[in-house]
Amino acid sequence: MQKLFHINDNRLQLQSDRVVDLGQGYAWLKGDQVLFDERDDMSPVRACRLTPQEINNRYWQLCDQSAIPANDAGMRHTADLIWKHLTTLHQAHDLDEVTLVVPSHYHETNLQLLLGIAQSCGVGVKAMVNKAVLALCGKTDGPGMYRHIDVQLHQTVISHLQAVDGNLLLTSVDVISDVGMHLIQEALLQGLQTRFIQSDRFDPLHNAQTEQQLFDQLADIAIQVGGAGKANVALDHQGQLHATSIEAQEWDALLAPFMQRVLTVASQADAVSVFVDLNGMFEHAVPTMLLESGVRVVKKLPAIPRALQSLTRDDEPSYLAELPCRVADAGTSSSAADTRAPSRDVTHEATDVTHILSAGCAIPMHRAHVAAKSNALIVRQGEPNVAQLLAQGSLSILNDEARKELRPNDRLGSNLADGVLTAIRVLE
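Below the sequence we write its predicted structure tokens.
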């Protein structure tokens, strides 16, 4: 059975014939244990305000080897937490054959580390596919530029995509560090704190127990506001009940700075459509500002495309940053666009390398132009020159400097600029 493991630090999901929510990317380093969201009675999310010093919720965002505070569980860095979490999920959900759906801000080093961790856990990875490309696959309205806004726990990732020649391709990525679920939750808690102080002279954030109670109710409060235009909130502190209410107008005002920031970025460049994925936040109560803006809110996972269904464990795991999008160029019928294969050059066919990967973006070989900019090695769409640079010696294969023909997973460097590019194979 085809399985997709969707990675987002605010909502991990397993997709097959049904969708299973696997919780959030929170780890509770409780003594010599590491607990995740598989147990409701020991949930790290429900303890994040009670024991914040024991909670780590950045490991899926970072996906690197950043050190974490010393602990009795033997976890040294964020990669250890990913390994532990994947091992736990593998034991519970049988990840013998799975495709990893990865966020756009993951670079080559993140992808390579994630693949290595997964393989060491016994997880059978068929491929890694870019989340934005997968999310918009089948939803494009025609050729042109599209934008996917992925609101994560600690940041928001903007993916710029292009629909051309019947395929959807990731072209560039931007990160907004001041918009994320965590900052939004903090703003909502502070707004509710003000309401409690004004109406009940009670500060819910002064006590860890009531702060956790309030944090746990945020999703329900959003649903009430979205449905009734008002929410009643109650907290129990030492046997005494404290209550307040919040109107939809006040709630929207707390969300406005974040939603406006997202919409400003969404409108900065021309795009056929802009998609926003809130990753479970306000799933049943989308902020009014977003609904009125004309952006398309992603509310469920896309169907698994045939390009992924055909993958097997026998294939070398690749990073897929391009998928068929079922769009037609001007003057071409949709059916023709669905069946037309993109053009390829001789080098592409001979080496089985389809794309050059840099900074999380994969550029097709037949459009990959490598250059030096500000002493950094970059790749962008343009006149293809990879084979020429290899022949001239301006590019070299770092893992086999004597070879001139590219193979999947080769790492490319140059004496002209800093940085490493990766040759990959995208399966169609």
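The longest helix spans residues 181-200.
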